[in-house]
């Protein structure tokens, strides 16, 4: 597909996204997403999972447009929390807090919020533009890839998500296996035999991904917070309307523009989304900065770069999710579940079969970004008030909406009990340092990976070489081997970088 | 963060408390046991699938459960080894989490009770009543003691949510006897 076709498709997409009702849906999505993202303790993944039931009654296009708004809004809201309250709830905002919070403490909160908001906007626009240019290309290339390649890519996702993130690989793999086990529950896709259902008809349909996501994120988090609720809450720093002076603009425009080119590629590969690229952006900006003495005390470049990076990585995530059906972050995993609720399977054929829907979604990403900038800059003081919500209400509310979501899936009490059991599991995982993301990826990709593997072996008539008989599959397995060897490589690299950091400081 | 340094444990301990501390420090073995149990469960379930079934393709429905189950058992053992050698999973921090305090099980149990009460009540009393009870009980569990504002928020939130889902979003939630009048 050439760029001209993409652009005309995108133009049609704007036609879809800008109808009054869809525009309204986008506004609601952006507002809900930002509000929930600002709330302490709720990251974008939980926001998307909790708000999934809101979209049940909408048609697919409107639902996905609302989702896009919630996603971008949730990411944006997270930066407000980390700047004004310091302790960020999700990994993408950790880096923002490192410079953003000291800025707010020094009375430069408005500038920090503004550079985050504009960085978010620019990163999103550049990232989404790259999405427009690259996604159709990736999709057309991906049409030809076969079952062995898919299986290899999914194994890559499993290995990457367990190895790259978190402090312990062992615990990452444990989490992945728990996810794969939950994914096994239900009827075998090829033979229809019941696995791990224990004779329950309800379990024969499998465990709904929404219940797993809401259970692990929302219920697990609430129980975990209940066990360790902070007695004295940190007070958010009050803030006025965000604005930027000329001096600040001179310092921020380069980090804004550099960020997307770090964030986008990292978002597209299964390396856990924004965590690594935002940190890379931070290090890069620190190296380029002419105000090295300010770092650690509130350097504006350290907010602008990582925010723009995080936003672009979200767009990169969507490329992989839409064209390959492969979620690289928890949010993408939940969005994939949302697609599947409507019987739409993201993958290479999505751009052909659901052209109007996909381009409407992409156009709405641009619309959502503009809305975010227009709504959020003036409304920042209002959002900041949300940080003062009493924690009992906050976590009671999370439980409330979690149970609404689980019950609305099928109107079954059993789902609530399942939700609770998975919540207890999420609690234990937090207690013992098992990352949640591998489990979610395991639940969603596990069944698909099994299907592709068995298909590949059907074609090769049981010969194991059927899994490695294409150049792409071989390449992917080489990458997997490299990732598995990474700790060894890292040992060789880290001492040097640490010294350099010390010199910089 | 706590600046309290007086709470360091005394150097001489009874053997019984010693054993208790050992288990507390190695409580992650519980996770390992869970994974082991899960692995055995997946393995037995996988192996008990009828093999004479006309399978399509060389790999039947047992293959993946057997692989996942075996890996679970393996990881459980590796995790146990790691824990016994002094490895520790990093407990997850967060905005509202104070990891320096010991776990407050009373709050966790109360909160669980609130959630399960909702599950028990929802089909009998309807969504507005059951989830209002849950919200109030959950807020109470987490330390809110405003006997006017708490139930009021709970009631308004549940009724508004019920109306929004039923009427605006077209997602049916059970109204129960109380909403029968509408």
Protein architecture, described:
- Chain A contains 20 helices and 2 strands.
- Chain A is mostly helical.
- Chain A has a domain of 344 residues.
- In chain A, strands 1-2 form a two-stranded antiparallel ribbon.
- The radius of gyration of chain A is 22 Å and the shape is globular.
- The N and C termini of chain A lie far apart (49 Å).
- In chain B, helix 2 runs antiparallel to helix 3, helix 4 runs antiparallel to helix 5 and helix 5 packs antiparallel against helix 6.
- The longest helix of chain B has 22 residues.
- In chain B, 33% of the residues are buried.
- The N terminus of chain B is likely disordered.
- At the A-B interface, helix 7, helix 9, helix 16, helix 17 and helix 18 of A face helix 2, helix 3, helix 4, helix 5 and helix 6 of B.
- Chain A: InterPro entries: DUF112_TM.
- Chain A: Keywords: Membrane, Transmembrane, Transmembrane helix.
- Chain A: This is Tripartite tricarboxylate transporter permease.
- Chain B: InterPro entries: DUF1468 (IPR009936).
How much of the sequence of chain B is in beta strands? under 5%
The general outline of chain A is globular
Secondary structure category of chain A:
mainly alpha
* Largest sheet descriptor of chain B: none
How much of the sequence lies in strands of chain A comes to: under 5%
Question: What key phrases describe this protein's structure?
Answer:
heterodimer, A: 505 residues, mainly alpha, two-stranded antiparallel ribbon, 75% helix, disordered C terminus, B: 182 residues, 2 domains, disordered N terminus, transmembrane (chain B), Tripartite tricarboxylate transporter TctB family protein (chain B), DUF1468 (chain B)
